Amino acid sequence: MPYSPINANQALLETSNTQKSHANALFTTAQYGPAIQGYNLALSTCPAYLDYELAVLRANIAACHVKLQEWKAAVESATQALEGLEALDPTVSAPRSGERGDGDQGAEGKARGKEGKADGGGMVEEVDDETAAKIEALEKSGHTTDEVRKIRTKALLRRARARSELGGWSALQGADEDYKTLDATANLSSLDRQTVQRALRELGPRLEQARKTEMADMMGKLKQLGNGFLKPFGMSTDNFNFVKDEKTGGYSMNFNQGGK
Questions:
Q1: What CA–CA distances, in Å, run from 204 to 87, 170, 199, 212, 232?
Q2: Which tens digit of pLDDT belongs to each residue from 52-74?
Q3: Using an 8 Å Cβ cutoff, are 131 and 93 in contact?
């Protein structure tokens, strides 16, 4: 039989799906480490152009890392899944306003007919080159926007959880952004929405505390560095006072020769 790229890719996909099914079975029996190995094998044989299938595998790997409390790895895998899904979901890119003319009505109708509502409940207002490419990619994938958004929601939930557990100002900010994105998602289940809204309430105080802690750490390091520069001149950072202007939020510096 002559070589056919289509047949070769189909064979690779079937092999990948078999490995994925085996990994799923391992996951259901709480064998998360071996499941990750299985999903990675599935990734290695899955054709590179199948963005949806690749995203599902990476989202599953993220789920394994969450179960193992490997938060950094969970964030990385979930992010890779989300990046892959961006190529398929025409509603991810916000539409440009003020650019639609009468000639765009046909394109808008096509986008609305194929894409429906966006995650936040809005419509795709126009079809630019990027959106048109995503519509075409989605059609070729054989999957629907609902399927794409379902995996996107799972990946966001896993990344948000992992970022929240990582802690630190930057990670908590990322978790806050993910949870806000999820809160604006129309297809979120009632249970997931409760989880998201509870997480958002709890993140506020944690974010503020993390900001204060990291600011204090940064100021301590700057003070140590400053003292190293000022010591040869018989001075230290104690000779300088920073006074906050409550009206502007800025700071002014005063020199105090006697120090503290």
A1: 32, 13, 9, 13, 44
A2: 999 999 999 999 999 999 999 99
A3: yes
